[in-house]
From TrEMBL:
Entry-linked Pfam families: Peptidase_M16, Peptidase_M16_C
Protein name as catalogued: Peptidase M16 domain protein
A biological process from GO: proteolysis
Stretches assigned to the Peptidase M16 C-terminal domain: 162-319
Molecular function terms, GO-annotated: metal ion binding; metalloendopeptidase activity
Amino acid sequence: MERHTVNEIEIFTIPFDKARTISCAFLIKKGSAHEPEELAGISHFIEHMAFRGTKSYDHFSLKYTVEVVGGTLNAFTDKLATAYYAKVPEFHFGKTLNVLKEITFYPIFSPEDTEIERKIILEEYKMSQDDPTSKLFDTLVETVWPGPYGRPIIGRKETIEKISSEDLREYHRKNYNLPDTKIILAGKVNDDYLSLLEKELSELERNKPGDPLPPPPSFEHTEPRYIVRNDLEQVHIALARPICGRNSEDIYPLYVLNTALGSGMSSILFHEIREKEGFVYDVFSQIYALKETGIIIVYAALSPEKIDEFFSKMKEVLSNESLFMKNFEYGKTRYLGKLDMVTDNPAGMMSFVIDNLSHDSLETIEERVERIKNVSKEDYRRAYERFIAGNWSVFGIGPESGKIIEKHEMIV
């Protein structure tokens, strides 16, 4: 990976000599955690509005320019960043670069389009409320991280309904500044692309820094919480504990530990909870880490009548240190293998860099590999003792009969 600077914008290039495509992302390091409460969801709203037309493109030609050659154009909003990205045949990069620049810096925000997009976002909001796993995870994060970091990225119904085109325009002007912009290129990269970037980016004007990031959240343990949804047959359960942040050296044994716990059909959870007991169809673990702190989550979905047995078995599994130690090599080897598999995929490498830059990290995949290789069994054991043993917060959503999870504390 090479690093360049053009008009105060950092550019990261990842060449793949045999590729015939190029993936490009414009990353703006502003996300939902930067927003004031009264504008919750405005970063996501701006991301949507960017596709409704810009200074040089109407909403159809914007997408057609990329898609007509078989390319893809998309975007996402996270807690710390917003990204606009495309993948196209390398001969079409010049036009695609112009499209990405326009989407990022020159959306129009007309009142008419704002009202149309508001309807779409409200439908997306309703869909997230209807989906039990989305509702469960949003409730979990908002409860254990109360405040800006826990707030749903899409915002709240009342703020989505009130955000105006002028709010969008002003927030965009204030927060889409050059020092907070990163560009990532992966694929058939050549020196001509830097010249294209210099040409495209030269017109952009520097503005003042936008809204600062609030202090990192503190995990607030809660009593078991259950949302009744009688239109569901299964109970969806999530267990959560605080973990270290990305700035800690303990994150590397934790990556190994999380992989051993809940990644793949050979993982501890899949083998012990699904394959041996038949309690669930789906069970996994995942981590979400900021620089300073994070959360580990275990998820499962099962029938209400299996809840008591499930919690009993889950306590047995999570408290079995020897079981975890037996899976050390699986967790380490699988995680290293997954990193290796990213390296032959330009879009995957771009995603890896986006994730790191969003959290102020310049770690390369080679550096991550070396740190994982250096994780010892003792490091892994300490991670188990620190991040698995202890009190877990319990969340659930499902039919009335599932409310019995409220009597289940998870103490490992």
